[in-house]
Structures are given as C-alpha cells and as structure tokens.
Write a structure and sequence with these properties.
By secondary structure, the protein is mainly alpha-helical. The chain is built from 3 helices and no strands. 0% of the residues are buried.
C-alpha cells in the first residue's frame, strides 16, 4: 500500500476579493469618521504620557 499526497493547489489572489476588502475597509473608515478626532487625541495623549518631556514637565 502506498501513501500518496495530493499536490497543493497553486496560491492565487482573486482581484474580486481585494476589491471587496477595500470596499469594506472604506465603509468602516467612513462609519468611524466621527470618532477620528477622539482617537487622535487619545493617541497623542498616550504618546505624550510615554515621552520623557512630559515626565519632566510634570515633575514625576
């Protein structure tokens, strides 16, 4: 009895799937558009909290 392994199918990237992903990402970005300013403020605040400059100003 011989064991056989089927050949793997070649990998391909259908353009329809890429277009669908881009459309979904654009839709999510539009839905989150009102939240972008808050996300930006939180991001900048987090970066400042980690920086040494803010630590020096606060005297910690």
């Amino acid at each position: 009895m011989t064991d056989s392994v089927t050949q793997p199918t070649p990998w391909h990237n259908p353009p329809e799937m890429s277009a669908f992903g881009i459309i979904i990402a654009a839709g999510i970005a539009l839905v989150l558009l009102p939240l972008w300013p808050f996300i930006a403020v939180l991001f900048i605040w987090g970066r400042m909290k980690q920086s040494d400059a803010l630590q020096n100003v606060l005297g910690e």
